[in-house]
Amino acid sequence: MRAPDFLQSTQASYDAIAEAYAAEHPDSLAGRPLELALLTAFVELARAAGTAGRPPVADIGSGPGYVTARLHEAGLPVFGIDASPRMVALARRAHPELRFHVGSMTALDLPEETLGGIVALYSIIHVPDDHLPSVFAGFRRVLLPGAPVLLGFQSGDEDGHQRLRERYGKEISLDYHWRTPETVAGHLEEAGLEMYARVLRAPQGEEKMPRAFLLARRPAPAPSGVFRPSGRG
Known about the structure:
Elements lengths: L4 H20 L8 H17 L7 E4 L5 H8 L4 E5 L2 H10 L4 E4 L14 E5 L10 H11 L5 E7 L5 E8 L2 E9 L2 H10 L3 E8 L9 E7 L16
């Protein structure tokens, strides 16, 4: 099946800039206490939802692999997925003890209910609005009940879009979508994922836009005989 046009251009763009990007971002979580705290919260939620089999978590849009590495250091079984073969090669070189695969969040090649969590930091920003519902439905499909999702993305007062034609001196065609937390939370809830936390951080350093972080999870079934209110009066 032919990959969507936006996915092909995203893959080609990151293949072109992979070395420069990895050199600039060997670990973008360093010196980011809020992001590290949210990653710690994700780890604890994944542990709480895990079973005796210790299901793996997936870092989707893993790039150079620094988030994957931090999850591994926290004791979670983890692997990375990225659309760019060149970026995957660099991640494997930087973290040879970890698994990285070429793939896309738009078509996760995983069985149902096999993941103990999903992290996607600054990767849904390349997914068009009309593809987000199916992406989040795919997340729900592969997550175990109770397993968490951590998203990070650029945000603003309203949704928007920009296409970059050049980066690091390379000619590219890379779409960036920024969205309000409410927009993304709405898509998550429509996909059957329940919200756990929403955080909006002001721009830091050279950043021009706020950063939004959402923690959600696939609902766990209510224990037998336990009443779960519908939320209606």
